[in-house]
Design goal:
The chain is of the alpha/beta class. It is built from 7 helices and 6 strands; from the N terminus they run H-H-H-H-H-E-E-E-H-E-E-E-H. Helix content is 55%, strand content 10%.
Amino acid sequence: MTTKTLNIVVPFNWRAPDILNNLAPEENAFILSMGTDMIKEARSVVAGLSQKEIYNKIKEETKGELKKLETDLLVQKELNNKIEEGVVGFYEKQLGQLKKQIETMNKQLNIYDLENSAQSEQINNKIKISVEKERERFEILLKEKDLQNKLHREAIEKLQEGIYTLTHKEKSNTLKGSEGEKEFNEYAKTFIDFPGFKIIDKHTQGGEGDFHLHFQEFDVLVDAKKYKNKVPINQREKIQHDLIKNAHINFAWLVSLNNSIDKWDRSPIMYEWINTSQCVVYINNLSSFEDPQKMLRIV
């Protein structure tokens, strides 16, 4: 099939949909034909309207949009206590839609100003005043939504803190062991937002490592070390033995907090598969990183 190339000018900040790169020539032709027909029809309708009709049309459309937004706000206020259902995300999505609607109204106002200023400056001024008033009401709604989002975020943060306190208070009060174990326990609190996370102290149980980190889809056996010199080879052998003993766990972390691990310090993080399903992760000098918790999240 013979095709031809067209040069089409679009606004500089217009972002082309990704699908355009995958359309066939026939599909491109169909889109252009349908789009131009719609623009022709729209221009024909606008050309047939009087200045008074244009003003009334904008006024009625704006009232309808405002009424819809006010109704949306009332519905959203009823959802204040449904934090677990993602109400904050819902407000943010609505806020984005409001901003897009305001941008669309501004563009429409600019178009009408350019096309009709020569014919009726007085009517255009009335349109500007009317739209400005509606815009002010939009801004009030947006500020109230921002306030609600802030309140919900604060509520979620407090809820997370409360959950952590309730689920970890007893463990924190009874935590025993070396200074290194206590330091790692503080770093591991970064996982509180991971689904199903629990940290289980195992340092008093032989062959179980210092901690078990429980996540929704897997567990991690952890040994935390704070030595003056490098972590010796016998500690690598020990964590491998403990991991093999816990056949239901696929990963183990040997964490050296303030030094490196002998023979396994060519990079900050190294991996060693000890069989087809179990892997030991060696983490060197964790406390030396600018953000140790971020490093654990990356691992």
